[in-house]
Amino acid sequence: MNPTYLKDKHFYKTMLGIALPIALQNLISSSLNMVDTVMIGRLGETEIAAVGLANQVFFLFILLTFGVNSGCAIFIAQFWGKKDIFNIRRVLGLALISGGMISLSFAAGAFFVPSFILSIFTKDKTVIELGAQYLRIVSFSYFITAISFAYGFASRSIGKAKLPMMVSAVSLLSNTVLNYLLIFGKMGFPAMGLRGAALATLIARSIELFLMLKMIYKDGEVLAGKIKEMLNLDLGFMAKVFQTALPVILNEGFWSLGMVMYSIAYARISTEAIASIQISNTVQNVFMVVAMGLGNSCAVMLGNEIGAGHRKKAISYAATFSILGPVLGAAMGFVLILASPFILSLFKVSPTVYENAHRILILMGLFMAARIFNTILIVGILRSGGDTKFSLFLEMGSVWLLGVPLAFVGAILWKLPVYWVYALISLEELLKASIGLPRVISKKWVRNVVEHM
Predict the structure, then answer these.
(1) Contact assessment for residue 232 and residue 90, using Cβ atoms and an 8 Å cutoff
(2) DSSP state of 414
(3) Residue 419 contacts by C-beta under 8 Å, 6 or more apart in sequence?
(4) Which residues of 130-168 are buried (b: 16+ CB within 10 A; e: fewer)?
(5) For residue 16, what are the contacts with CB-CB under 8 A and spacing of at least 6?
(6) Low-confidence residues of the chain: pLDDT under 70
(7) What is the longest distance spanned by two Cα atoms in the chain?
(8) Would you tell me how many other CB atoms lie within 10 Å of the CB of residue 190?
């Protein structure tokens, strides 16, 4: 596996054309989410914990939706390599139907039984009550999110990453402004607290979907399919797509359930532990935008080349991304460690939460090179090549055989502080990388899934 594209200008031009808009979109998203967390933090640590746990429902929903769209994106990227617009629209239709069904089931649970769901995580009645108020309102945004998510993923898969970036930027800015107005009751708006944050999210998601559909269908581009075109599905076609996509959906589902189990373990430590993790994850997400940009650009570039029949070029691309990821990850981790005291000074929290979050951020910085490599490995290389079953077993095994047991042993049996529990959990990143790298080198991951469709 020879990384011949390390000095290739065309490679970097293509990569940056896809990676920068995605990274910028995620940077805007993560930065504004951090601002939102700071605003909610002004209400108190209990409110931070309530929103953090309530968003575990959205987290599980969005990752299942991510799995559906990641699986479908494998086909869209490879069909785009063949310039097969007819089948691109069919796959998009399948993604919309699947995402819509998932969103409605999650919305029903979040609206009708929010207290029961939150009681799985914590016994703190105040956290449950506040989180339930938030969940009921924000549940109406799930279906809207699923539709815009499908179009955004499809846009990136055909190399048009600027559209979802611009739409997301407007939506997120709207969310931040509305949060300020509705949480604190500024400029004549009522002070609604957490309910205001939930309403702001619902309005912002609606704006996002409206702009996305308007821009796609206004220009009549590749994704501007008619309902009849997108529903032109038969059992053979759907079976072929889901044969490859189902392991991705299961991958995201079991991985996100693992992350939920981590949250349950943290909640067993204390409400302060939940707040510390919520703050740390919000900060880390700002630094992980590099991983999302590289991972998605890797998936699109490799998928396009495999679909076009350029196997050797795809393999060399994979080698180049495998080198770039850890190098940039190490640099980002170093910056995170240095900047963490300044960033945490923005949050109005107790000394205990501050100290816990500071130590967690240092650990996040140390593990960032491995984390970014694993993002490129799973999202970019293995999935683009259709090697989704190996990806499923790799991620499931790392999280459920190592991470989850260590989380509960550390939190409940050993009664460790939250930062040491996080350190134990992070060992799964090292296991994943050590098993995944030989798979990349073996070249067994390269498969043309659209060759006979």
Answers:
(1) yes
(2) S
(3) 276, 356, 359, 360, 363
(4) bbbbbbbbbbbbbbbbbbbbbbbbbbbbbbbbbbbbbbb
(5) 297
(6) 1-7, 29-34, 37, 451-453
(7) 63
(8) 10
Residue with tokens 């490679």: 11
Question: What pLDDT, in 10s, does the model give residues 136-165?
Answer: 999 999 999 999 999 999 998 898 888 888
Model confidence over 316-339: pLDDT tens digits? 999 999 999 999 999 999 999 999
CB 341 within 8 A of CB 358: yes
Burial label, 228 (beta-carbon count in 10 A; 0-12, 13-18, 19+): exposed
Return the CA Rg of the chain.
21
| Residue 68: both structure tokens together | 């559906």
SS3 label, residue 232: coil
Q: Which of 374, 360, 298, 299 lies closest to 329 in space, CA to CA? A: 374
For 235-263, write each residue's pLDDT tens digit.
999 999 999 888 988 888 888 889 889 98
Q: What single DSSP character describes residue 376?
A: I
The DSSP output letter for 4 is: G
pTM, to two decimals:
0.77
CA–CA dist 290, 294 (Å, integer):
6
Please provide residue 240's backbone torsions phi and psi, each rounded to the nearest 5 degrees.
-65, -45
CB contact burial 258-282 (16+ within 10 A = b; e otherwise):
bbbbbbbbbbbbbbbbbbbbbbbbb
**Which structure tokens are listed for 94?**
């399948």
| CA 409 to chain CA mean position, Å | 27
CB 32 within 8 A of CB 200: no
Distance CA 293, CA 203 (A): 27
